[in-house]
Design a protein that fits this description.
The complex is a heterodimer of chains A (about 110) and B (about 110). With about 110 residues, chain A is mainly beta. Chain A has no helices and 11 strands. Chains A and B meet through strand 4, strand 5, strand 9 and strand 10 of A and strand 4, strand 5, strand 9 and strand 10 of B.
Amino acid sequence: SQQGEEDPQALSIQEGENATMNCSYKTSINNLQWYRQNSGRGLVHLILIRSNEREKHSGRLRVTLDTSKKSSSLLITASRAADTASYFCATQPFGNEKLTFGTGTRLTIIP
Amino acid sequence: KAGVTQTPRYLIKTRGQQVTLSCSPISGHRSVSWYQQTPGQGLQFLFEYFSETQRNKGNFPGRFSGRQFSNSRSEMNVSTLELGDSALYLCASSLEGPRYGYTFGSGTRLTVV
């Protein structure tokens, strides 16, 4: 079963524009993580935000977390063709070592 | 340092057969999780092992099993294969669990015919 739902399911933007994707989840969490997957390969860990944090940055990535709304967003600034991939949010509940993934957003950057 | 290694990379099996997939985590990582990825169901959690003990199990039938060895290497086994078991099987490792984020392998693409 999916804990998180990403929105939109697919997103196409021009190179250089910013891309925003959202994740909603259902239960209380210990942390939320974002991963990238290129063409059916393994996932790459991008960023982790804990439940007591509201915002985190890593290079061109900015993640926000709103635990009252059970939602998170991932912003990629100044997009590049190499950012074309699927992006997944994943949540870990308190007291549980199970990481559950959302449905993913397919991002296409148009050169 | 070496990443997470999954073998084999591709596999074709016939319905009814069984299959064993292997995962070697990053050196020093004691937590290994397995996921099944399909276009229809997305990423589904199979199980998580830590220091040779299964800590969590997903909602898969008993045909899916796994184990972890003392060197943290892990295997998963699927018996009596069905067409619906065709998927990308991903292994991920971490020092102590997903609270620190996972490093994934490239996966094993299993096709059941």
